[in-house]
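Handout, section 4.2: multi-component inputs.
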Amino acid sequence: MAHDIVSEISPKPGDRIEDLSTPRPIIDEDRMAGNIARVQSYMDAHGLNFRPHIKTHKIPALAGAQVAAGAKGINCQKITEAEVFADAGFEDILITYNIIGPEKLARLSTLNERIGGLKVVADSNYTVDGLSAWFATRKPLTVLVECDTGGGRCGVQTPEAAAALARHIAGKPGLIFGGLMNYPKPNSAAATQAFLAETISLLKRDGIECAIVSNGGSPSLFDAHLVPAATEHRAGTYIYNDRSMVRAGHCREEDCAMHILATVVSRPTPDRAVIDAGSKALTSDLLGFSDHGVVVGYPEAVITGLSEEHGVIDLSKCTGPRPEIGDKVRIIPNHTCVVSNLFDTMVFHRDGVITRVEDVAARGLVW
Amino acid sequence: MAHDIVSEISPKPGDRIEDLSTPRPIIDEDRMAGNIARVQSYMDAHGLNFRPHIKTHKIPALAGAQVAAGAKGINCQKITEAEVFADAGFEDILITYNIIGPEKLARLSTLNERIGGLKVVADSNYTVDGLSAWFATRKPLTVLVECDTGGGRCGVQTPEAAAALARHIAGKPGLIFGGLMNYPKPNSAAATQAFLAETISLLKRDGIECAIVSNGGSPSLFDAHLVPAATEHRAGTYIYNDRSMVRAGHCREEDCAMHILATVVSRPTPDRAVIDAGSKALTSDLLGFSDHGVVVGYPEAVITGLSEEHGVIDLSKCTGPRPEIGDKVRIIPNHTCVVSNLFDTMVFHRDGVITRVEDVAARGLVW
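Output:
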């Protein structure tokens, strides 16, 4: 029922952005195309394969544009995301996750039978042994070793441990050792290179090749060429860009393709505006910021607080005009990927005219 | 397509919680029923009408249970939420929002024609004049004045301004003045009472009655009786409860009906566990906490960081057993309402056996 209502109020191509009811995220087609081209050019210039992470948009048509620009394969974080993209024709899919549990293993093998290029990662004997027990009697699965080169999330802790796990995978029925994967700490290319190169060297002594060495992350996007041990880089955020990417120096504010269109619904005091975008439109992701996004055109306005359907803006520092009740404003979110995850459809526009409305096809998938 | 996949993997009544793939929010039926009964008893004991906010669950069947327990009407934050609940048979609906813009006004009047008890709020002449321009030629709409008694969000700033806006509503074609509404600062019942009582008194001199005086908020839930000027109280979170409600002293940890079931997918170091619940399952809402939820059964474990599909847990303070890879854990979220908004379905259980799976019918509605 909910989704019927949404479709009734979905805008249509040709409609104008300023007529949209709010809150609503919108994507600037030209900025997005520029982002795809710029990052692909960087990867091409350095001879790196590029594997975009689809978690940012969850829309097959956008992954299609990324691949058309030159990307080699895609990166998913969940089996169900990979299923949506396999349905859309993608074959070279790396799921950068430890897959555990009988229900997930069963679906993973079904997916592996359907497409040629499925790969997952593992960082423990537990995960590897679970995969092997399932895949031993089925089409073999390619598994990469996840390495913690400093990112502090998942991953084996040393090159020696990585090599040991790689040997474990290589010796297990049903599994093919596929290489290495890591999600590094920002600004630590040298440590990443050292870890990966040492692991490759250890494995080479045993005659084990790392077909893929997948380095990653948006924070490390333009450091990819400083890790020559890697054969590819993964990143997602760059397609839309956001405030965190501007801060990192990876793009300009005018490269941010996603805005959350919002309406000023209250001006209770001269210094306070309230918009209809709260944590259920912008999310509460701070990513190190102390406030909740950039109000385009009002550089001194500060989104100081979010409740679920309200955003409170402090205008006290504004030296120029202040937004009035009924005005529509555009917010650049701190983090674009989590905003995509809140909305069932995404509206695209060029110069303010809607070009298309895409289902966020892989949104809402539980696991 | 996404939703077809979800339905394929939806669990069924009779399945056991421990067999669910993760991450997945689950609701304990008995705890939820206890929460509904306890808060309704408090309201009944003080002769207060209670109007639950459905934003917490977005599920008509749950609002039905709240009304069956004695609640008088429901509270929505969006027109589209109200439409879903009107479809389910609810008539007494207060939308606590300034409704602005032609598309929303058109839908609001359609809804007003369908049900008898629709009410909205306004805190400015701008909103009121927009409503009047639309409703002057249609079935009249009931409008309450939103007052800022200290909460610092929307609302007129003084009793005099509230009275003036009430008179403005009362004099406008197409509108019926319905009373007052506020969302107070926590622990400020005296200030709330003073603001509301003064406004009521000012209006009484003009012969204007406040049929509804709607006080609200989960933080102020058990202070409702300290605001005798109010005729009703609104709150949402109590039905599931969460870590913020435990901290506020409004419930015990064993009253938290929502858990996020998660699996330990990695134990990269002795002091670090990584679970498959990240910001796309728990949200980044901190609500004043410095970490991301309670790990039930591991009181010294701290969820220090979330990425989208990973939660990083610091186990260094754990004196007892530590969760191992493959273990399932239950997380009490900081804020339950925003978790509901991420999932298309919600699983309910009693003593670990699934009782039902409800569509989160009002999730994903843009405005």
